[in-house]
Amino acid sequence: MAQSVRPFLMFEGSAEEAMNFYVSLFHGSQIRRIERYGPGQQGAEGTVFRAEFTLAGQEILCIDSPIHHAFTFTPSFSLFVECESEAELDNAFSQLSIGGSVLMPPGNYGFSNKFSWVSDRYGVSWQLNLQ
After folding, report:
1. What is the pTM of this model?
2. How confident is the model at residue 82 (pLDDT cuts 50, 70, 90)?
3. DSSP category for residue 44
4. What is the per-residue pLDDT for 130?
5. Nearest-angstrom CA–CA distance, 89 and 70
6. What percent of the chain lies above the pLDDT cut of 90?
7. Nearest CA to 22 among 120, 129, 101, 128?
8. SS3 21
9. So where are the chain's domains?
10. Which residues pair with 33 in a beta bridge?
11. Which of 9, 43, 96, 106 could lock onto 120 through a cystine, CB 3.0 to 4.6 A?
């Protein structure tokens, strides 16, 4: 396999749910592969051992950690999305903000036509931009 750098998201039991949600929001997105924990393995049977998915062509890896950690996602790392249209930005914002928190509501902040920053219900941070 060729050397690559990809975002890696660690969940605690909601990786598959999050992937399905994310790929439903952006064109050119799909779940490419899911490996699951089996009987007698460290993680809960059926949860995600390792998965690969793409969002608008960007490859992302994720897992369901079998170990509880004292940390989670932080807004200091976010997924930055160049939206194709205002409708795409508005839809993504409305879906991602359900159960999450709005860090910057949609608006013109001077550096683009429209921008928003939201942390979703899984704790993943998203910057949505309309150039």
Report:
1. 0.91
2. very high
3. P
4. 97
5. 32
6. 95
7. 120
8. helix
9. 8-64, 78-130
10. 52
11. 96
What are the start-end ranges of the E strands in 5-124? 8-11, 30-36, 48-55, 58-64, 78-82, 101-107, 114-119
Q: How many residues does the chain have?
A: 131
Q: Quick check: 66 and 49 in contact, CB under 8 A?
A: no
Which pLDDT score, from 0 to 100, does residue 70 have? 93
| Helices and strands counted in the chain (H then E) | 2, 8
8-64 and 78-130: identical CATH topology: yes
Highest CATH level, class, for 8-64: alpha beta
CA distance 1 to 11: 25
Architecture of domain 78-130: 2-Layer Sandwich (3.30)
Residue 43's φ and ψ, nearest 5 degrees, are -90, 165
